[in-house]
Amino acid sequence: MKNPSRPAVLVSEVGPRDGLQSIKSVMPTAAKLRWISALAAAGLKEIEVGSFVPARLLPQMADIEEVVAHALTIPGLHVAVLAPNLRGSQHAFEAGVHKLTLPVSVTNEHSMANIRKTTAQMVDEVRAIVALRDAQFPGVRIEAGVSVAFGCTIAGAVSDDQTMRMCLAMGECGVDEVGLSDTSGYANPAQVRRLFRRLQTELGSKAGGAHFHNTRGQGLANVVAALDAGVMTIDASQAGLGGCPYAPGATGNIVTEDLTFLLEAMGYDTGIDIDALVAARAILADALPGEALYGHVQDAGLPKGFRYADGREPSAPQPEGCLLGAAQ
User: What separation, in Å, do the N-terminal and C-terminal C-alpha atoms of the chain show?
Assistant: First the structure.
């Protein structure tokens, strides 16, 4: 039984989608399936396993149906995907996914670059997708992932009011939740705290999670601000893979391993085994040779005396002393 004094935070792994779509290498399907299985075995409860987009546009996602079919066989795993339009959404529904994320940009400039639709056209598309879900696939949860919610490298500054107008439009379309994405790495903690509090005030139970990029080194600081605002779902990508290909300069997502350590060290229960999570990186290293992998926990290890929020001890031996040589 979970201790109510240890609040649970859902870490939603987006590496198999957001991470892999952003690199030129195509991860072999067999390795991808092993990776997803290893992530789930480490305790991740929700994984965004890919996106339903034409293979000619994103060959990294050409095996999405096989990947979804495999993920659905993993007990207890909440299988999420992304789709940018009605056609992709129908394929996702038919594949049996549990959750569908729709990328909806705050700015027209990013929307046209990312999905070739204006923001107004995308609102109509979301309305049609929700209608299809309601009529034929009522068990699937739909999230609107509001992109460039904190700023856009193409259009520039984005006001809180601009972002909230799109969030409210998504709520009116009938989506189940609305999350905020720092697609371009513009966000700062004060802005994150302010926008998520407003999102919760104006959308209530439909206020969703946070998706941060570490482009300017603010990723984990923004996570703490989101937690302060009551956000309990945080996206992350193993080894920091990721970055929107249509947002110039947007580097990787926050690192799942580092995020999990942060949460557990602060007393939030993730249910994830960090040692097993770090071990899963070996699959990435083997399948994507030469690809940059980021993060700190895998180098430093867990601190001596570390305990998980639920009282568990680490599964791997802890260091006896400083790993980096003489103390400074």
Answer: 42
pTM: 0.94
**How far is Cα 56 from Cα 181, in angstroms, rounded to an integer?**
26
Q: What is the pLDDT of residues 155-196, one digit of tens each?
A: 999 999 999 999 999 999 999 999 999 988 899 999 999 999
Mean pLDDT of 54-78: 96
Q: How far apart are CA 292 and CA 25, in angstroms?
A: 12
Residue 168, token pair as written in the block = 């409210």
| Cα–Cα nearest to 148, from 184, 191, 179, 173 | 184
Q: Which two tokens stand for residue 90?
A: 């129908």
CA distance 25 to 117: 27
What's the pLDDT tens digit per position in 79-90? 999 999 999 999
Place of tokens 């699937």: 140
Q: Which amino acid is at 218?
A: Q
Domains present along the chain, CATH in parentheses = 10-300 (3.20.20.70)
Distances (CA, A) of 68 to 45, 51, 164, 212, 218: 15, 10, 32, 24, 32
Q: Residue 97: which of 82, 108, 86 has the closest Cα?
A: 82
- From the list 152, 167, 173, 244, the catalytic residue is 244
Structure tokens at 157: 């500054």
Q: Which run of H or of E encompasses 12?
A: strand 10-13
Distance of CA 55 to the CA centre of its chain: 22
Q: Give the residue from 45, 63, 50, 44 showing the smallest Cα distance to 22.
A: 50
CA distance 60 to 49: 12
Question: Of how many residues is the chain composed?
Answer: 328
322 catalytically annotated: no
CA gap 309, 37 in Å, rounded:
24
The dihedral formed by the CA atoms of 87, 91, 93 and 94, expressed in degrees to the nearest 10 = 140
